[in-house]
Amino acid sequence: MPLLALETSCDETSAAVVDQGRVLAHLVSSQVQLHAEYGGVVPELAAREHLRHLLPVTRLALQKAGVDPEQLDAVAATRGPGLPSALMTGLKAAQAAAFALRRPFLGIHHHEAHLYSPWINGPPPKADFSRFQPNISLIVSGGHTLLVHVCSELNHHLIGSTVDDAAGECFDKTGKLMGLPYPAGPEIDRLAQDGNPKAFVFPRPMIDEPNDDFSFSGLKTSVRYFLRDHPKLLQDTQCLRDLCASIQAAIVDVLVTKTLRAARRLCVGCITVSGGVASNRALRQRLGAACERQRFALMLADKAFCTDNAAMIGILAERKLRLHSEPTPLDADILPSWALE
Questions:
Q1: Which of 206, 261, 271, 285 is the most buried (most CB within 10 A)?
Q2: What are the DSSP E strand ranges found in 155-269?
Q3: Is the pTM for the entire model greater than 0.85?
Q4: Would you say residue 327 lies in a domain?
């Protein structure tokens, strides 16, 4: 029987229906244009938009899947981490549905769901866990940059995280310094395609540190001072492209180097990458080439499942049920700062 999943951790209202590892329906209502005016996500506006769109998106997902609510076997939602007011919308809606239908409810860790999103492929989208193997997982987004050692299904531990700015945050903030529209990450990716990544030299923070942590605030500060000292550079289109390519190269170098180093140290044969920044073309290309040279299997999340989405929430929830995880109490609260262990 199918499972309904909801995701409202930030500025994407998403609902999905999954059944036996298959994604029967997957819808996302994005708020990017709404928040672009402010240069970032406004929590109160995000929560209001979730309230407006959650029910229509959920109804449409059930309709596209050809599933009546009474046919659902379980209901799941993101419990954390995320914006408190945004998380509350999806979690309480899912708990209410589970209570009304007398079905089990599962509150899912957002980052743990990202861990398993690379195993969703298709069409039609389906989680193929028969190919699962121990791996180093890089979860890289606007709010988080994490390295996770996944020993087996549902058995993992965090080995590294960002000590300040996340990679996606660095993309967005340096893009804002250059006057690019929000979110700046995709725009930098686009402009960098025609730029020279060696045109300007920027620091690669912590790239030589023996630990698995990340830091990108120093890179952001370096770009700020560079633009202060070269104010006319942004008036030249090619220089702007070169600048985007150079900033992107610095971020990607750090991500690729530290991920591969961890994989070699922990003797795993597979690397997975997920999260919003996982859709960056330079990161996908660099990791692909490096993994081929060093003979690592590489699992990249499909671009449709890189950003926040309910499909990955549903896939993980269903897997947990199949592996006999206990349901989450219906009175469980949100966990906005829920750390991945």
A1: 271
A2: 155-161
A3: yes
A4: no
